[in-house]
Amino acid sequence: MLETLDLTIRFGGHVAVDAVSCRFEPGTLTAIVGPNGAGKTTYFNLISGQLPASAGRVRLDGEDITTLPAPLRTRRGIGRAFQLTQLFPNLSVLENVRLAVQARCGGGLELFRVWLDRKAWLDEAADLARQVALGDKLDQPAAALPHGDQRKLEVAVLMALDPKVYMFDEPTAGMSVDDVPVILDLIRALKARRDRTILLVEHKMDVVRELSDRIIVLHNGRLVADGEPAAVIASPVVQQAYLGMAADEEEAAA
Ligand SMILES: Nc1ncnc2c1ncn2[C@@H]1O[C@H](COP(=O)(O)OP(=O)(O)OP(=O)(O)O)[C@@H](O)[C@H]1O
Fold first, then answer.
1. What is the spatial distance between Cα 230 and Cα 4, in angstroms, rounded to a whole number?
2. Rounded to whole angstroms, how far apart are CA atoms 99 and 211?
3. What angle do CA 201, 207, 212 make, to 5 degrees?
4. How far is the CA of 197 from the centre of ligand 1 (A)?
5. What pLDDT is recorded for position 84?
6. Spatial contact of 167 and 154, defined as CB atoms under 8 Å apart
7. By alpha-carbon position, which residue is closest to atom 27 of ligand 1?
8. Which atom number of ligand 1 is nearest to the Cα of residue 45?
């Protein structure tokens, strides 16, 4: 279980995440919503270790990981879609995913073992690349991919690492309309396993509504609503703070 306790970060006088306490259970997909600048990405950065907390704690399975650097949190099981800069830009799609599979399997340096396992790693990597619709680009260097394909590669690498906690920050942003359902299907399949903690920052409310088991709402860095999706979406604080306009638009469209 992942937990934040009074998690806070200040930038000068501005409190971007303000004493957020929340627990995230395995088998649950929690959407984190809120207006632009609410603190969603900053909250993600505090959980994954990209930013140091000014106050408060982050715990994973009861262990305090607040001061661990990001790579050590990854090893503990906090998985976030990697930016291309954290991948290997000159290696192919297949090799990038293969390295993630190998990292998950704890591939050591015992040469005979590496030689034996390499075929299995490559097969799994190719399968994952196909699942994100990159099957026809296995040999292309990551850096040469268009932006949408790079985002898909990030998702494939995350799937290959298969962390305890999956963190998706607008996973379909910048993708073509054909690719969006591919990624959403993967998240759906992951959710159906019911053994992983999934956090999703997403602006598209139809996606949030369909995928989430729970929604938390951040506003000015504070947690202002938390609960079952229909109830949170209907709550006055959310209608006012964030969804008012979307609800009006939906009514107008109906
Ligand atoms: N490194 C930083 N230095 C100073 N201020 C920052 C920094 N990172 C974020 N902020 C500020 O913290 C606040 C929260 O930003 P954040 O990006 O987390 O919001 P968000 O909810 O993810 O917004 P969006 O939906 O637009 O992505 C904003 O006011 C932002 O300007």
1. 24
2. 29
3. 70
4. 24
5. 54
6. no
7. 36
8. 18
Q: Relative to the CA of 203, which ligand 1 atom is closest? A: 25
Q: Supply the residue whose CA is at minimum distance from atom 6 of ligand 1.
A: 11
Distance 234 CA to ligand 1 centre (A): 26
Taking CA atoms only, the protein residue closest to ligand 1 atom 9 is 42
- Residue 222, beta-bridge partner list: 219
Lining ligand 1 with CB less than 6 A are 11, 16, 34, 36-42
Cα–Cα–Cα angle for 161, 163, 167, rounded to 5 degrees: 105
How far, rounded to the nearest angstrom, does the alpha carbon of residue 68 sit from its chain's CA centroid?
19
Ligand 1 centroid–CA 90 distance in Å is 31
How remote is the CA of residue 39 from the centroid of ligand 1, in Å? 5
Q: Cα–Cα distance between 97 and 158 in angstroms, integer?
A: 9
Determine the Cα–Cα distance for residues 121 and 95; give it in Å rounded to an integer: 10
**Complex ipTM over 0.95:** yes
Per-residue model confidence (pLDDT) at position 248: 47
Contacts of 116 (CB under 8 A, 6+ apart): none
Question: What ranges do the domains of the chain cover?
Answer: 1-77+165-179+195-254, 86-162
Q: Read off the pTM.
A: 0.89
Class of domain 1-77+165-179+195-254: alpha beta
Q: Determine the distance separating the centroid of ligand 1 and the alpha carbon of 46, expressed in angstroms.
A: 12
Q: Is pLDDT of 132 > 90?
A: yes
- Give per-residue pLDDT as tens, 4-24: 999 999 999 999 999 999 999
